[in-house]
Amino acid sequence: MNFFIYLLEYYAEYKNKNAGDVLSLWDEVGITDFIYNMYEMYHIESIQNAFDDIDRILEKCA
Predict the structure, then answer these.
(1) Low-confidence ranges of the chain (pLDDT < 70)
(2) Which stretches of the chain are DSSP H helices?
(3) Residue 43: its pLDDT value, please?
(4) Distance CA 44, CA 19 (A)
(5) Are 23 and 32 in contact (CB under 8 A)?
(6) Phi, psi dihedrals of residue 31, rounded to the nearest 5°
(7) pLDDT of residue 34
(8) Cα(62)–Cα(52) distance, rounded to whole angstroms?
(9) Portion of the chain with pLDDT greater than 90, in percent
(10) Pair 21, 11: CB distance under 8 Å
(11) pLDDT the model gives residue 40
């Protein structure tokens, strides 16, 4: 859970958004659990790779 919060907060900062708004978006498009469960991969990669992956996932949901 700590890493998920870290990822959420830094992704929000990267996007210049509020973490609550980002979480609401993730919930709205149904990817919150997926991102949470990607801990193993996101934790060992650079944070930018995680951001890029999340951006790709969001593009597919649009």
Answers:
(1) none
(2) 2-14, 19-29, 32-37, 39-44, 47-61
(3) 83
(4) 22
(5) yes
(6) -115, 0
(7) 93
(8) 15
(9) 77
(10) no
(11) 87
Sign, CA torsion 34/54/51/25: negative
Token duo for residue 53: 């992956």
pLDDT at 17: 97
- What is residue 42's predicted lDDT score, i.e. its pLDDT? 86
Is residue 29 within 8 A of residue 58, CB to CB? The reply is yes
Are 25 and 59 contacting, i.e. CB atoms less than 8 angstroms apart?
no
Quick one: angle between helices 19-29 and 47-61, nearest 10? Answer: 50
